[in-house]
Amino acid sequence: MLATTCAACGSDDDSADTSSATSAAATSASATASAAAAAAVLTATNAFLATLSTAQKTSVQGERTAANLAQWSNLPDQLFKRAGLRMDALSAAQQAAALKVLRAALSDEGYTQVTGITTADGVLKDSGGMDLDFGADHYWIRILGTPSASGKWTVQYGGHHLAVNVTMAGSEMTLAPTLWGAQPASYTKSGATTEPLSGETTKAFAVVGALDATQLKSAVLTTSITEIVLGAGQDGKTLATTGVKASTFTDAQKTLLLALIDEWLTPLNDEQAAAKVAEAKANIDQTTFSWYGKTTIGNPIYYRVQGPTFTIEFAHQQGQGANAGGVTHIHSIYREPDNDYGAELS
C-alpha cells in the first residue's frame, strides 16, 4: 500500500497536542485575568480604607460572621438597621474611593446598574410621597474580614432595593447573594430615561414568549406567587426545582434563556463572570424556568431560573402600601445555593 505524508498538515497526534496546548494557554490566560481582577478589588479596598479616620475604620470593618453577612435588606433605612458607613456621611473623596471598589468588582454594566438603582431612590424621595428615609446617597459600605490576597473577605454595599455582597478568596470572587430592586423601575432624569432592570425584564418575556403550549404549561406555577422567596433573611434555604426543563428547549430557546441568565452573571467583572457564563452554558440542560403572571410585557410577573450553580428570582410588587407598584416596583435576587458568600471558595 502506497503511503503518503503531509508535513504541512501534521499527524493526528500533532493536532491533538496543538489543541491541548491552545486549551491550556486559554485556561492560563483566564486564570491570570481573574487574578488581576481580584487584585484590583483588593487595591481599591485598601485605598478606600486609607481615606478613613480611625473611628470610620472601626465603623466600616467587622468580623466575617454569619450574622454580619446576613445584615442586609431591601427595606429603606427607616425600617431596617444597617451597619458600616453611609455614603452621605463620607467626604466627596471618600465617596469616590468607595465607588472605585465597586468599579473594580463589577463590570461596567454592573456598576451602571448599581448607580441606576441608587439614583432611582433619589427620584423616589423627590416624588413627594411617603418618605422612609429614601435617598440616592443613603447606601452603606461595609467590609467583613481582613482584606488580603489569600484570605476570605466580603465587601457589602447596599440600602433600599440593593444589597451587593462581593466575596473574595484569593483570585476567586462571587456576587452571591445579591439583591437587585428598583422603584421606580423606569424614570427620566436630566432628559435621559433609565430602566435599571430592563434586560432582566424584557429577556424574561422573550423566553416565555418563545415557549410552545406544552412547555408553557410546565413553566407556569400553579400557586400564586408575587414576591421573591429567597430574599433577605433566607440564607441557607433552597427551593424545590420547578418549571419547564431547558432540556426540552430548541437551540433558539436555549439561546434566549442563556441571554437572560447572562443578565444575572455579568454584573460581576468580565474576567470573573466568564467562568460562570461558561458553566451556565455547559449546564443549560439541567436548568429550569418557572413563571407566574400574564405573558405579555407590561404586566406584573414573577419568574425563577434554577441551575446547578445558581437560583434567580424576579418579582413585580403586587401587594398593598409600600409593597404595591406592580411593574414600577421590582424585587429580585441572585443566589448560588452552595456558594453564597463564597462558601465553596478556598
Could you characterize the architecture of this molecule?
The protein is α+β, with helices and mostly antiparallel strands and 346 residues long. The chain folds into 2 domains: 30-178, no CATH class; 192-342, no CATH class. Helix content is 38%, strand content 21%. It is built from 9 helices and 14 strands. It has helices at 12-50, 54-60, 66-69, 92-105, 108-126, 198-210, 213-219, 251-265, 270-282, and strands spanning 61-62, 85-86, 140-144, 152-159, 162-169, 172-174, 178-182, 187-189, 192-194, 244-245, 288-293, 301-307, 310-317, 326-335. Strands 1, 2, 3, 4, 5, 6, 7, 10, 11, 12, 13 and 14 form a 12-stranded mixed β-sheet that branches. A two-stranded antiparallel ribbon has the order 8-9. Strand 11 (288-293) and strand 12 (301-307) form a beta hairpin. Residues 1-13 and 18-26 have low confidence and may be disordered.
Write a brief structural summary.
With 346 residues, the chain is α+β, with helices and mostly antiparallel strands. The protein has nine helices and 14 strands. The N and C termini lie far apart (58 Å).
List the helices and strands and how they pair.
Layout: H1 12-50, H2 54-60, E1 61-62, H3 66-69, E2 85-86, H4 92-105, H5 108-126, E3 140-144, E4 152-159, E5 162-169, E6 172-174, E7 178-182, E8 187-189, E9 192-194, H6 198-210, H7 213-219, E10 244-245, H8 251-265, H9 270-282, E11 288-293, E12 301-307, E13 310-317, E14 326-335
Parallel strand pairs: 1-3
Antiparallel strand pairs: 2-3, 3-4, 4-5, 5-6, 5-7, 7-14, 8-9, 10-11, 11-12, 12-13, 13-14
